[in-house]
């Protein structure tokens, strides 16, 4: 090892030791009482006697006496006006006390660079900063911090932190709201297990999850009716009409009301729903704002969204086929730098009349689509071949055979098709109906379905 390299390594080691020593210095400067556990330390501070009593009443004192925790204990003065709805209810008291006890030992200096999300004993998540702790929209400052006990860290804070309900609990409370009725009613029963579950929580968002953050829109009756009426034509179903909405329509409506960021304040003009739909936020449409432990709920008197995001075009790459008319066939996936995915599909020398390639298109909306393809005959055969698109079945002659002119790279309009019901759509690319290999070739870069919004 040369001297210069050895010197460089020594510098790195020294730098690391210096950094570690700074952190251990902060740790060691904290007040310590390593002979007593957290509960004993809390009881030893006369100004925490009220919290010590609440801790014992909640039954959490035994848990906090062992294990590894951080406690943010409000002073006696901070707890003077604690409402009876908390002190007089066993479950509410336990949830309240648990909102001041975090798992693991957290020292304030650890939040110097960035805030730390702390999981609390009541499953809520509070945010630790170097000089304060925040529970949703309440912030408490430290009278003292980082007092070390045998099994954790004690802080004294200048106000209490009342736990908030989560977004799902708030939605359930708003039972008269049409959106609340929509999402809480999205239940199905598994025929095998006989288990009933809410498919909104499975397919859209689990609004009860305290480890995630959400913004959720409840809509007024008028706003909801307008939105539902606009969406119904695009989610037609084969089932007979009932008062209950179909699963596709229920999901189609509810996905636009959930956002995976908690916009407590300074909401952007446009936000993106979990369904990747751009939704406009107008402050003057807010009827009520309710802060939750894992986000915020807005009651809105209007709902403005981008319809082209909601009913998007569909692009099918030629090489991603779902089936072939003969099960295998002479199919080539070619590398082409001009292709949309740098690849296209070529079927040549099949020896089969009307050879077809199948594409299953999921979640096509019930609307008209203009259909385009890009098919490039780049001299793979020395003539103009013919092919067509069939819908659902090769017997469907909605579209006629079309020429694929050699070395033409432009997108070509095929025709228009109206999807009657929301769901899967089957497209088939079919060759000229002859067994002659000089005439039954197929080629495809992509098919594009563009919804006709009327």
UniProtKB/TrEMBL annotation:
Residues 35-161 form the FAS1 domain. SUPFAM superfamilies: FAS1 domain. The keyword Signal applies. Residues 1-25 form the signal peptide. Gene3D superfamilies: FAS1 domain. Keywords: Signal. The keyword Methyltransferase does not apply. This is FAS1 domain-containing protein.
């Amino acid at each position: 090892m040369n001297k210069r390299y050895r010197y460089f390594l020594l510098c790195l080691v020294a730098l690391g030791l210096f950094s570690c020593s700074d952190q251990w210095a902060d740790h060691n400067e904290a007040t310590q009482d390593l002979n007593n556990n957290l509960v004993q330390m809390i009881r030893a501070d006369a100004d925490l006697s009220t919290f010590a009593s609440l801790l014992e009443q909640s039954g959490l004192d035994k848990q906090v006496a062992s294990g590894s925790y951080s406690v943010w204990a409000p002073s006696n003065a901070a707890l003077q006006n604690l409402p009876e709805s908390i002190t007089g209810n066993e479950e509410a008291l336990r949830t309240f006390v648990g909102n001041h006890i975090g798992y693991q030992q957290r020292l304030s200096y650890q939040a110097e660079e960035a805030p730390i999300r702390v999981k609390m004993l009541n499953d809520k998540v509070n945010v630790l900063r170097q000089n304060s702790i925040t529970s949703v929209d309440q912030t408490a400052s430290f009278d003292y911090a980082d007092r070390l006990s045998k099994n954790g860290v004690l802080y004294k804070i200048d106000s209490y932190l009342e736990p908030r309900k989560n977004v799902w609990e708030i939605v359930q409370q708003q039972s008269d709201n049409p959106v609340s009725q929509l999402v809480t009613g999205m239940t199905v029963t598994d025929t095998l297990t006989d288990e009933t579950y809410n498919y909104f929580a499975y397919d859209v968002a689990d609004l009860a999850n305290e480890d995630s953050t959400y913004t959720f829109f409840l809509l007024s009756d008028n706003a909801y009716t307008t939105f539902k009426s606009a969406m119904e034509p695009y989610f037609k179903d084969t089932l007979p009409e009932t008062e209950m909405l179909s699963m596709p329509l229920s999901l189609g409506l509810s996905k636009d009301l959930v956002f995976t960021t908690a916009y407590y304040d300074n909401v952007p003009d446009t936000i993106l729903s979990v369904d990747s739909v751009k939704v406009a936020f107008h402050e003057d449409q807010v009827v009520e704002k309710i802060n939750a432990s894992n986000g915020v709920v807005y009651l809105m008197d209007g709902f403005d969204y981008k319809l082209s995001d909601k009913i998007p075009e569909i692009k099918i790459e030629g090489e991603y086929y779902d089936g072939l008319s003969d099960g295998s066939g002479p199919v080539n996936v070619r590398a082409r730098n001009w292709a949309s995915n740098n690849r296209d599909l070529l079927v040549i020398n099949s020896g089969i009349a009307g050879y077809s390639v199948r594409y299953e298109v999921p979640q096509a909306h019930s609307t008209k689509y203009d259909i385009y393809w890009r098919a490039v005959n780049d001299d793979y055969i020395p003539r103009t071949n013919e092919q067509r698109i069939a819908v659902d079945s090769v017997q469907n002659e909605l579209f006629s055979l079309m020429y694929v002119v050699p070395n033409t790279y432009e997108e070509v309009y095929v025709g228009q098709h109206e999807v009657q019901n929301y769901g899967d759509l089957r497209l088939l690319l079919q060759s000229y109906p002859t067994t002659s290999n000089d005439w039954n070739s197929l080629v495809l870069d992509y098919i594009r379905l563009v919804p006709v919004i009327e």
